[in-house]
Amino acid sequence: MKDLKYLQYFEDLALQADNALVEQAKKAGKVCIASICENTPEPLMDLDGAFTVRLSAPQTYSTDIASYYMTNFLCENSRSLLERAIEGGYNFVDGLVSPDGCTMINRAAENMELLHTMDEGKEKFFYSYMEIPLKNDENNLNLYVLQCKNHILKPMHENYGIDVSEKAIRKAVRLHNEVCRLIRKIGEFRKEEYPRITSYEFHVLCTASYTCPKYLIVDKLKETLEELKTREPDRAKNRIRVVLVGSNIDDSSFIRLVEEAGAYVCADRFCFGSFPGRNEIPMNSREDALTQICRAYMQRCACPRMMNMEKVYGRKQDVADLAKEYNADGIIYEQVKFCDPWAYERTLGTQMLREDYGYPVLSIDRPYNIGSTNGQLRTRVQAFVESVEIKALQRREAAK
Fold first, then answer.
1. Model's pTM, two decimal places?
2. Which strands make up the sheet holding 240-246, listed edge to edge?
């Protein structure tokens, strides 16, 4: 296929957290409110005068310094973020919001604060820690709303004078929803028998929607969508199609590895993915915007930290539904090494998707960045692809 016009542009943005668009927004006088978890409502940090990015640590292969503070037994994602913060890679940040998505992420944020990795010489800088729901009900919704008021909106307004009015929040939601619509429409092309976008290309675009100021990428996403409508796909059929499920993936080289090994990632359910992170937020005129945002985030949350049984079983059903909708042949469950929430979820999900839903499942744990072990992962994915192909052939033979 012909290269996408802006693929190299988006690839370059992904190479560092302090990318060109972050610098452009900062030069325009906007403040950057960063987050480190998908459970932090993005629109509340994208208000006029501010923008938000999800912190990532691309190309971090050593976490020696961070491990000194956090030990080797905490997940590589949290240690990589702390390592990059200590190196000065997040000096552009003006405030950090950390929900208690997991203990390890909180440990990373606490060490960032204790070591003054981002706030040196910044009088208005704030570190803010949120308590977020473990269950999906009205009591937890009230908690979520209160936490967002006290730990996102209040410090943004008091420290930087950001407008946190109803009108301002609704405007931010419109921008958020526009980006979500564009990402989802681009992702729809993955349903095709001969997809006109590679799974690697889609992940690069989707990741940019988390790590760049949204208002600066909308036009290029629109242009990319129009470009894809007339793009001629390769006529070589993918060996198998998979849904990729699990913990944080902001390293597009992992998606490339899976694709080059013969498995096309037709749908994604992971942090930094489009499901559910790029769901639009439905809005009405009856309730205040903050409550509606919090309800949408709480209801859609597919993180293993949500413990009510409806959520526990619903997460597996959602994966099965994605596999059916996107015509997947199998499922890959992955987790970053030492990620406790996804370690349990991966074990349970792997078993249930195999036994209850009948899908072949590859279960792996992986480094945060795959550079040092991509040969091992490639071999495992290739073996999975071959096993799925063999089983499909056996079924066809048995049906004759």
1. 0.96
2. 263-270, 240-246, 330-336, 361-366
